[in-house]
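Is this the right way to post structure tokens for a design question? Let me know if I should format differently. Anyway, here goes:
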């Protein structure tokens, strides 16, 4: 019986050692995995913060460009209004010139060269 008891005790001790080594190995492997995940997490946090900063910079640039576009649109509208006024004034002068040239043609045989294109 002692032979069986010793053998059984030896098997139990070996089983306990194998279980203990397995538990320690699993714990070390888990800790290694956790460390890798934490390192990756920190790296991703840093990248995320950089991307947020890039986004803030891009939004500020967009706001600046939108303000510039708005300002340029206002300038363009004012320039177009001025251009329209100048064209209208020019057309009035052309009409006046055409009337004067017509009157000169009726009164004289010769016409000034300014009236050639009218």
């Amino acid at each position: 019986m002692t032979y069986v008891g010793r053998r059984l005790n030896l098997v139990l001790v070996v089983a306990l050692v194998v279980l203990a080594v397995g538990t320690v190995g699993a714990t070390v492997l888990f800790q290694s995995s956790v460390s890798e995940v934490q390192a990756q997490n920190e790296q991703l946090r840093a990248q995320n913060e950089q991307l947020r900063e890039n986004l803030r910079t891009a939004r500020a640039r967009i706001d600046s460009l939108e303000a510039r576009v708005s300002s340029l649109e206002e300038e363009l509208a004012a320039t177009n209004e001025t251009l329209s006024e100048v064209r209208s004034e020019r057309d009035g002068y052309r009409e006046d010139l055409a009337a004067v040239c017509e009157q000169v043609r009726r009164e004289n045989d010769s016409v000034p060269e300014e009236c050639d294109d009218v």
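Format looks fine. Someone answered above. Worth noting: The chain is about 90% helix and 0% strand. The helical segments are 2-107.
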